[in-house]
Amino acid sequence: LLDDNKIKSSSYSSDLGFGFRAISGEIVAYSHSNEISKDSLNQSSKNLQSTLKSSKGTYNHEIPKTNKNFYNDINPIEEKDLNSKLEVLNKVNNYLRSKDSNVKQVTSSFSGEQKSIEIIRLGGQSITDVRPLVRFNVSVMLEKNGRKETGVYGIGGRQSYDSYLDNENWKNVCDEAYRIASVNLESKPAPAGEMKVVLGPGWPAILIHEAIGHGLEGDFNRKKTSAFHDLMGQRVASEGVTIVDDGTIDKRRGSLTIDDEGTPTERTVLIENGILKNFMQDRLNARLMKTKSTGNGRRESYKHVVLPRMRNTMMLSGKNTQDEMISSVDKGIFAVSFGGGQVDITSGKFVFNCTEAYEIIDGKIGSPIKGATLIGDGPSILKEVSMVGNDMMLDPGIGTCGKAGQGVPVGVAQPSILIDKMTVGGTKL
Amino acid sequence: MVKDQEYLRNKASYCLDLAKKLGATSASVSVGHSISESVSFRNKVLDESNRSDNLGVSITTYIDKKKSSISSSNLLDENIKTLIEKCIENTKITPEDEFNGLPDKNLLVNKIKDLDLYDESHIENDKKIKYLKELEIVTSDHDKIVNTESGFTENKSNFILASSDGFL
């Protein structure tokens, strides 16, 4: 981590352990330890037996096999020495500070991991996967006439550091962080009220992930806590809205060769032209809902129980251009990127803060605005989509999804979309 | 059973001695072990049980005003040696920061009061399940209650903080 002209810290950690899961009916008994010993395994086994002793289960069917790999078997940590990483961080700092005298602070970091997993099933079947993951992040603060604004941008994926340390690549990340900070330096207070909203392509799909995607996870639907649980086969979104969850995109942050139960991942169509087609399933929820696993069983590490989780969740391209959307709006906002937000993942109610947004007046993009929040609920927003762009874009590879105290890397993607009615929280009435 | 103080103290001493031997001017270490067991019910039915057994070490090494950290859950001596070597290697090439260093020795506590917080008793999983079952049945008797969720968690932990200037 580089901050305030200095390398502030470097750290390294290694973790090793096992998780032991037994299932009977709806009951899940789980035990994990990072001490791999006979004694520890016995303790875990005893714990599982005491939970499931009166339960009877059936042996679940075999897991399909795959030879496809969506990333290479590499260790990003070992392939690049610390000096090379420090050198790039210093170059980032110098590049941004020499760009503009208004640059007052630069923070930049690299992180990399390699995760090796082995899943051993009843009957002796063993399935393995080696998962690399890297992330590069830059934050730049500008100060002009006493006003300070920050721009943050990052990239990442299941690749080697080399793909990110490339000269053009890190400069692009710096330029984008600088551009966002510069835009915000000129921003004015955001309007408030109900209006039309154009969402830009790429990262804004985090709204779809949070407000709609979670509601399509198998566990919430089996327990009937999701707004979508009784809507299979029915219209849940406007015509033209197709949402898929895809774990098979090469080297993407949310991609997995196999999920954490060993099921090969797939491209699962969740909503097709507005009609609800599938939920995302792990093996437990799939069995109880009498369907098949979609390869969405994921967990943060051996310390966590598997849950149905998203991979790369994407709204597919439509026919409209972004210009058509903007020109159709008399008064509204164009939201390009989001920062933090809050979501009730079962009802889909959300509040998102825009980190880059513009007002739209009489069909034209106007001034950048600051402090805009988007408020609504996923199921309603889906029905308000009136145009779907032809410019689908993947996010830069920075998302981490939180559920039940577990964080897993995910991806999102979408084209520009026009939402006819959405509540915008701002300070200008 | 959580690891006792002697086990944790021996691991901490091993780390500090090794860090100094491999070139650190000072070092700090924390070693911890925790075991947690939980059971949960939903609508009078056993839903899930979880057992968690976590052992871990984190070490910070300093070479004058340079600093680096490592952490691991693998406490085998051989692995710790590899990690400390890596940590020292990283410390050497990390730039100095004037604020890096161990806290002033004179500000550290020298007598730690034993608050006698550790409870030896252990409730077996079976008993936890039995208690929750009774609880759920009694709760469900009330007409206005339409949904019940209950959980029972037991957690035991032990840890040690130590530094090369004698704090333990």
Explain what the structure shows.
The complex is a heterodimer of chains A (429) and B (168). With 429 residues, chain A is an alpha+beta fold. Chain A contains ten helices and 25 strands. In chain A, the strands form five sheets. In chain A, strands 11, 12, 13, 16, 22, 23 and 24 form a seven-stranded mixed sheet that branches. Chain A has a five-stranded antiparallel sheet with strand order 2-1-6-7-8. In chain A, strand 18 and strand 19 form a beta hairpin. The radius of gyration of chain A is 23 Å and the shape is globular. The mean pLDDT of chain A is 92. Chain B is α+β, with helices and mostly antiparallel strands and 168 residues long. Chain B contains three helices and four strands; from the N terminus they run αβββααβ. Chain B has helices at residues 5-21, 77-93, 125-140; strands at 26-42, 45-63, 66-72, 149-163. Chain B has a four-stranded antiparallel sheet with strand order 3-2-1-4. In chain B, a hairpin with a 2-residue loop joins strand 2 and strand 3 (66-72). In chain B, helix 1 (5-21) packs across helix 2 (77-93). Classes of the chains: A alpha+beta (429), B alpha+beta (168). Chain A binds chain B through residues 6-17, 26-35, 40, 43-44, 47-48, 50-51, 82-83, 86, 303, 305, and chain B through 37, 39, 45-56, 58, 67-74, 79, 83, 86-87, 89-90, 93-95, 97, 124-126, 129. Strand 5 of chain A pairs parallel with strand 2 (45-63) of chain B, so a sheet runs across the interface.
